[in-house]
Amino acid sequence: MLQTPKLGVRRSLPLAVCLLLLAASSSHAATTLRWKFEPGQVLHQTVVQDMKMTMVIRGRTIVTNMTQTMDVTWEIGAVDAQGTAEITQAFDRIQMKMTAAGAPGFEFDSNKDEELTGIGAALGPGLKAMAKSKFELKMTTRGEIVEVEVSQETADAFKKLPGAGAMGGLFSKDGMIALIKKSSQAFPEQPLEKGDDWTTKTETEMPNIGAMAADTKLTYAGPEDVEGKQLEKLDLIIAITIAPKVGGRAQVNLTEQDASGVIYFDNAAGRIDHSEIVQNMTLQVMVANNNFTQKISQTISTRLTPAKKAGSEKQTAP
Q1: In this predicted model, what pLDDT tens digit does every residue of 55-80 receive, in sequence order?
Q2: Are residues 92 and 316 in contact, defined by beta-carbon separation less than 8 angstroms?
Q3: Are 278 and 252 in contact (CB under 8 A)?
Q4: What is the spatial distance between Cα 189 and Cα 92, in angstroms, rounded to a whole number?
Q5: What pLDDT score was predicted for residue 210?
Q6: pLDDT tens-digit series, residues 111-161
Q7: Do residues 180 and 202 make contact, with C-beta atoms less than 8 angstroms apart?
């Protein structure tokens, strides 16, 4: 004779199933973000910076607009057992367009051999040298840059950029290595759930100005369908502080700021798909007893896409 299960057992079965479903769903709720590198892989990075600078000096307003596009190739070399990759990053092309009130316009393209005049005569040599530079680095699967090699030739190229002299050792070989290492936004070790956040901090000594610190807060916003791809969205907010140097050549105070952005990470491909940062700031500057206000508004957009295999002709923007 069949025996009917006890009532307590009947009730416990649905509860057990619910607990199993909850456990399963919670185990898939967390996402581990990681870069994936393959030897011989080539990536093409395009960075577009649109900037508007407004200076008010003795009641006179001077507006400068600048657009810069940089094309960079990433060539992936050896990848160790932990997934850390040796990467060569080389500039392929730099384009810049600048207009300023009361001055002739300026356009530069490193792919064109043109004689530059006016502002171009001052900016061109440094930009041409920069367009030939490259960096050797190691990046972990978390996106952390752990080693950087900068040739003296590359460091010398950056020193030719206008205003580089005022940056002191920032564009020296050691200064550039430190700057590149601090530029990465590394992912946390642990898996992330929607709403989790973390903060990265960088500090840069600006000769004759003071110390500039940037706190970048990143928040995992979860997966999002973008142009038919599932990407992981990261929201970010940047807070900058400037500690003016006592006795410095310029006294700079940051009076207003608003900086935020978004990063879309392709976790399946193991790389950033694209990002955008919008930043607005107002500075009060005193140089040689002259006071002026400077407002800076800029948008920086970055996109990283697969390129041709190593050994083939590099891709560059048209």
Answers
A1: 888 778 889 999 999 999 999 999 99
A2: yes
A3: no
A4: 33
A5: 82
A6: 988 777 777 777 777 788 778 888 899 999 999 999 998 877 777 777 766
A7: no
Q: What is the pTM of this model?
A: 0.82
pLDDT band at residue 40, thresholds of 50, 70 and 90?
Answer: very high
Q: Hey, what are 271's tokens?
A: 């790389």
Please state whether beta strands 42-57 and 145-150 pair in parallel, antiparallel, or not at all (unpaired): unpaired
Instruction: For 229-263, write each residue's pLDDT tens digit.
Output: 999 999 999 999 998 877 777 788 999 999 999 99
CA distance 52 to 279: 11
The closest alpha carbon to 102, from 69, 68, 67, 57, belongs to 57
Please name each of the domains of the chain with its CATH number. Answer: 33-306 (2.30.230)
Following DSSP, what letter does each residue of the chain receive, concatenated?
A: ---PPPHHHHHHHHHHHHHHHHHHHHHHH-B-------TT-EEEEEEEEEEEEEEEETTEEEEEEEEEEEEEEEEEEEE-TT--EEEEEEEEEEEEEEEETTEEEEEEETTS-----THHHHHHHHHHHHTT-EEEEEE-TTS-EEEEEE-HHHHHHHHTSTTGGGGGGGGSHHHHHHHHHHT--PPPSS-B-TT-EEEEEEEEEETTTEEEEEEEEEEEEEEEEETTEEEEEEEEEEEEEEEEPTT-SEEEEEEEEEEEEEEEEETTTTEEEEEEEEEEEEEEEEETTEEEEEEEEEEEEEEEEE-PPTTSPPP---
Residue count of the chain: 318
Instruction: Answer for the pair 144, 85: CB distance below 8 angstroms, yes or no.
Output: no
